[in-house]
Amino acid sequence: MDHLSNHPETAEMQETDAAHHLHPFTDTAALNEKGARIITSAKGVMLRDSDGRQVLDGMAGLWCVNIGYGRNELADVAARQMRELPYYNTFFQTSHPAVIKLAERIAQLTPGDLNRTFFSCGGSDANDTNIRLVRHYWASLGKPEKTVIISRTNAYHGSAIGSASLGGMSAMHAQGGLPIPGISHIAQPYWYADGGDLSPEEYGLVAARALEAEIERLGEANVAAFIAEPVQGAGGVIVPPSTYWPEIQRICDAHEILLIADEVITGFGRTGNWFGCQTYGIRPDIMTIAKGLSSGYQPIGGSVVSEKVAAVFAQTGGEFAHGYTYSGHPVAAAVALENLRILDEEHIVETVGADTGPYLEQRWAGLADHPLVGQARSSGMMAAIEMTPDKSARAPFETPGSIGPICRDFCIENGLVMRHVGDKMIIAPPLVISRDEIDQLIEKAVKSLDQTLAAATEQGLMKPGTR
Ligand code: PXG
């Protein structure tokens, strides 16, 4: 089938898009000047744009298309569910088969006694749920003053007012009067930028102990929870030092606070285990899930809670005055269930853990030899490189953020979606990427880095700055 035959000319679509579409996380003036890149179809790890160009999707959409594009089984399940029961709600003491099966399957897959899920449409609203959930939990236990949630700088927990407040993105807080009260932020475990002369292991302990200091500063009686991504994704794939999570877990165990693991990116195989918690030895009370839950084929997310948390809701909590029209949407639930079947039966997570993940890690680590690269790091199928004008000093560029977009544009020209976060380049390809496709990805990345170095040198951008 020729997908292009269904579409008007690219320029015409771009013009209509520019006239009527307000895009997320986009400088509208800049976009309208050059026109949106229009993706019309996709298969496996390859995207096809409206000009018929093939592009390797190094970002799995937005970190979500874990099983890859073009799985007809999910389309068939969606069509069947729409014919049978396109919509019903889960409010007011009702339920339906698709959501019941999905809730059971999530309980089986998640570690420990995370056995009960509150459903949302994505990660942002799941984290907004978490804010209300942990506060209601403590209030139900007679401790209504335990309200403050500790998070981290440069964290990403979503874009709704609550979840954007939980996040630690200064550019987001600068718009719309965020964060809301009752959220505090500690430093991220970002050794490359902040570790100075300490070893990564030493710095991991320093970063973790900031949580203990913050609990003491706020008063334990006022703290409800700590929330963190096992590996920060949108912040630039910040892989924590090996000492970080064990120390965080010790601190959470020693204090009366809930631990929320935001697994929206790290869940469903991304780090080589079903959940990042398993890779990093974390025992959360609540887990945020979305993205890979349905591989992005339908919008669905949730907050998975432990028996300890669930018990309070079941016993003393009364009515939880919270819910979304589409909480546990039947079509999304059925599609998610089919996605989990494929992840499981095709051993996709095991393959990432034992074969393609280690292979990517090895190939990616080789990028550290490039003159522009100060560090290459990865965790399963998520990886980052730090670009620098001075490798030994781990120096930033004199004009931070000037090199990333140049590299990103070369990548696109070379047929690779690789995202920039400042001057870091990051990838998170579909989990089904093969060794051969990983080789193609690395080849395109190296070519793009060579071109970026040449362009940056020519434009006089290779000057170190200070942090
Ligand atoms: N938590 C985490 C850890 C996330 O990465 C959310 C919550 C919010 O999920 P929803 O489904 O509401 O978007 C996310 C989303 C990027 C990028 O460019 C990252 C996300 C979303 C969009 C872009 O890195 N993460």
Q: How would you explain this protein's 3D organization?
A:
By secondary structure, the chain is of the alpha/beta class. It folds into 2 domains: 44-67 and 347-458, Aspartate Aminotransferase, domain 1 (Alpha-Beta Complex), CATH 3.90.1150; 72-345, Aspartate Aminotransferase, domain 2 (3-Layer(aba) Sandwich), CATH 3.40.640.10. 41% of the residues lie in helices and 15% in strands. The chain has 17 helices and 15 strands. The strands form 3 sheets. Strands 4-10-9-8-7-5-6 form a 7-stranded mixed sheet, with helices on both faces. A hairpin with a 2-residue loop joins strand 11 and strand 12. Helix 10 (200-218) packs parallel to helix 11 and helix 15 (348-365) runs parallel beside helix 17. Mean pLDDT is 96; it is low at 1-5.
CATH architecture descriptor name of the largest domain: 3-Layer(aba) Sandwich
| pLDDT < 50 stretches | 1-5
Q: Give the strand order of the largest sheet, numbering strands 1, 2, ... along the chain.
A: 4-10-9-8-7-5-6
Main sheet summary: 7 strands, mixed
Rg over CA atoms, rounded to whole Å, is 22 Å
What molecules are bound to this protein? 3-[O-phosphonopyridoxyl]--amino-benzoic acid
From the N-terminal CA to the C-terminal CA, the straight-line distance is 52 Å
CATH superfamily of the largest domain: Type I PLP-dependent aspartate aminotransferase-like (Major domain)
